[in-house]
Design goal:
The complex is a heterodimer. Chain A is an alpha/beta fold. Chain A is built from 13 helices and 15 strands. In chain A, helix 6 packs across helix 7. The longest helix of chain A has 30 residues. A two-stranded antiparallel ribbon of chain B has the order 1-2. Chain B contains 13 helices and two strands; from the N terminus they run ααααβααααβααααα. The radius of gyration of chain B is 20 Å and the shape is globular. Chain B folds into two domains: about 200 residues, no CATH class; about 90 residues. By secondary structure, chain B is mainly α. Classes of the chains: A alpha/beta, B mainly alpha. Chains A and B meet through strand 2, helix 3, helix 4 and helix 7 of A and helix 1 and helix 10 of B.
């Protein structure tokens, strides 16, 4: 037999053995799984002032679980999300995590925001259960490392790159004022970051103008912002207030392309309320543009079931978290055996905090020490209420 | 006991203590929001001294309560002369001043808060909290059933009549404010130990709304209503069916409005408390007679 043939046979046998072992591991895991179903504690704020923000997350989560179960579940067992309503209340978020720990689950999903994370993660850390949050800020993920994950673009990188892209597309910008609706610390941090990065590029950074939530009329805020004599503005806050501010600025002669809004602002309400003023506004998120085929699939299904509405920029994180959960359970060979709970929780944590080439809904990225790395920066511009296309992209 | 039950008991106790702190001045028709800013002050004091100076819990509790009382002493005499709506606005403003300061000062962790308190064991946390619940309950009960309680009744009926009867209403107001602030500060310390830290969002407007709802629904004129209202109101959104969870805040608001319209004195008013007390005493007498 020739040498080449021997090598080929060796490779074929080797490949067969690897496949057989992989198959047998999978079959082995299925045989070892002791739970009848994977019950995943899911902490979302289903009630409270921001319940509307969590609704699309829940819709997507339920859809994904249905699809996963239709395809055979995780390691051959169906999946059930055990929702716990944290209601944007720190005490309830803590109670939800307490329930998750009591249930003996190998992992949990959520909470969705920093405030609830701050309240409840100390308990999760003490119990050694990994929280697939994804939407918390980088600061929180670092604070509670290695027990949670931040799966969005690095804010500091994002702030710099977004401002660079904005200046690249609008080189006539000379000075910028940031209007800040301080609903979360992250919003103010983002605005401050925009100012800092613009100043580093030689743009006159006029600082922040506060836009408190719940005002009847934002005219005075627009006037105050315009008094800084900036020729461009950034805004961070809610969709409704964002729409009012953008309309006010454009009515006073500011070009829409000289307005940049942080990703959470670009949502269905903003696109409806700011019609006629928003066409040309830039942002790092688009509720209408599908970045991947799976993104397109769920965007379409959501629009069909919600009278043509789109879901906002952070919702793809829920897809990423559920996909990671499936991969974590299967890759670590988790069985759900109560006797091995601590060990399996630790293995899942070790898997989750370092991943290479994770295929998310909006991007493919790595996870390094619990933080997303090499996350692409997307730059979108509003064309209409149904069209916010990609105009530029940077892969850091 | 599961962790969930433990935290349910823990937060119920803290909210009952907070509600009792509000109950005392409200009993005298004084809408005093001092307990809320005292709760924030107590929590931040506890977190700061624990994280930066490593103070033991017993020292933190004593000093935090003392600090809250001293802080409240400053505006107390002026507030005593105000009463009513001006007192509400002034103490609400103080609440937001305290929060804004905490949110903006780097030494208190700014927007992110202060973390790193060495957590108490679950048993110790619950034991300490319920020990203080009993102590505060005893203090409030004794105040209620003393000449101060009768003075509060008189002031509640008519402040001018009470003054004409010889009650020093200004001094009584100051005493109420300081007592309420002390109890509020204690609630804050327990809150900080529960989270092993403190952050500004823990003391938002929701806290005021929540505290007021417990007091209104439970009963503004007895201390017993808060014991029932606090745990029920805190947990009910947790036990709602999934289809109703998104309406939790609406159900909450509807309940508050219903109580204000149908029974403004709350679920447990003076009459209910007295009737239960009489029933209890007659049962007790009956049992004693049978044994005798």
């Amino acid at each position: 037999m020739s040498r080449g043939r021997k090598v080929l046979i060796f490779l074929l046998v080797g490949a067969f053995l690897v496949m057989a072992m992989g198959g047998s591991v999978s079959a082995q895991q299925k045989a070892n799984v002791v739970v009848k179903e994977w019950r995943i504690p899911t902490i979302f704020f289903l009630s409270g002032p921001m319940a509307g923000f969590a609704e699309p997350h829940k819709w997507l989560a339920d859809k994904l679980i249905a699809d996963i179960n239709a395809a055979g579940g995780i390691a051959g067992k169906p999946v059930v999300l055990d929702y716990c309503d944290s209601g944007l209340d720190p005490t309830k978020a803590t109670a939800c995590i307490a329930k998750a720990i009591d249930s003996g689950a190998v992992l949990m999903m959520g909470p969705l925001n920093d405030m609830e994370m701050k309240a409840s993660m100390p308990l999760a850390v003490r119990a050694g259960i990994f929280s697939f949050s994804g939407t918390c800020t980088k600061t929180i993920a670092e604070q509670f490392y290695p027990w949670t994950i931040y799966s969005l673009a690095d804010n500091q990188v994002s702030q710099r790159v977004q401002m660079e892209l904005w200046l690249k597309h609008e080189p006539d910008i000379k000075s910028v004022t940031s209007i800040d609706e301080p609903i979360y610390p992250m919003i103010t941090t983002l605005n401050e970051g925009y100012q800092k990065n613009l100043a580093a590029k030689g743009i006159k950074a006029n600082g922040l103008v506060q836009a408190p939530s719940g005002m009847v009329d934002y005219g005075p805020i627009v006037v105050k912002a315009l008094a800084t004599k900036a020729d461009a503005y950034t805004f961070g806050g809610t969709e409704g207030v964002g729409a009012k501010i953008v309309k006010g600025l454009v009515a006073q002669g500011i070009k829409p392309s000289h307005i940049y809004v942080e990703p959470g602002v670009i949502g269905p309400s903003f696109l409806q309320e700011a019609k006629g003023s928003m066409e040309g506004v830039y942002s790092a998120a688009s509720p209408t543009y599908a970045l991947t085929p799976v993104h397109a699939k769920y965007l379409k299904e959501y629009a069909q079931s919600h009278n043509g509405k789109f879901f906002v920029g952070f919702v793809p994180v829920t897809y990423d978290m559920i996909t990671m959960i499936k991969q974590a359970i299967e890759a670590t060979g988790a069985t759900g055996d109560p006797a091995k709970l601590k060990e399996e929780r630790a293995k899942i944590k070790d898997f989750a905090i370092n991943q290479k080439g994770f295929k998310g809904m909006a991007a493919t990225y790595d996870v390094v020490k619990g933080l997303a790395a090499h996350y692409p920066e997307y730059f979108f511009q509003v064309k209409s209420s149904t069209d916010v296309p990609l105009v530029d992209q940077v892969n850091p | 006991m599961t962790l969930f039950h433990l935290y349910f008991l823990q937060f119920s106790a803290i909210y009952i203590i907070l509600a009792w702190a509000m109950y005392l001045p409200f009993r005298a028709n004084q809408p005093y929001f001092g307990p809320f800013y005292s709760m924030a002050l107590g929590a931040y004091f506890a977190a700061y001294t624990a994280v930066n100076w490593g103070w033991p819990p017993w020292l933190i509790i004593i000093c935090a309560v003392a600090f809250c009382v001293l802080f409240s002493l400053v505006p107390a005499f002026k507030l005593a002369g105000l009463g009513g709506f001006p007192m509400l606005i002034a103490t609400l403003a103080l609440f937001f001043i305290v929060l804004t300061a905490a949110r903006n000062l780097a030494m208190f962790g700014g927007r992110h808060g202060l973390f790193g308190m060495v957590p108490l064991s679950n048993t110790a946390l619950l034991s300490v909290t319920y020990a203080f619940l009993l102590v505060v309950g005893f203090v409030v009960y004794r105040l209620d059933h003393s000449y101060i309680g009768r003075a509060l009744d008189a002031v509640h009926f008519d402040k001018n009549v009470a003054a004409a009867m010889g009650i020093d209403t200004a001094r009584l107001s100051v005493q109420l404010q300081l007592t309420a602030s002390a109890i509020g500060g204690l609630a804050g310390v327990l809150y900080a130990f529960t989270f092993a830290g403190v952050f500004p969002e823990a003391f938002g407007f929701n806290l005021i709304l929540y505290g007021m709802t417990i007091l209104t629904v439970g009963g503004m004129y007895t201390m017993w209503g808060s014991i029932i209202a606090a745990p029920i109101l805190w947990v009910f959104t947790q036990v709602l069916p999934d289809s109703l969870k998104t309406f939790g805040i609406i159900i909450y608001g509807a309940l508050l409005i219903f109580m204000l319209l149908a029974r403004p004195s709350g679920v447990i008013d003076r009459g209910t408390a007295a009737a239960v007390s009489r029933r209890w005493k007659s049962l007790f007498k009956g049992v004693a007679a049978q044994q005798g």
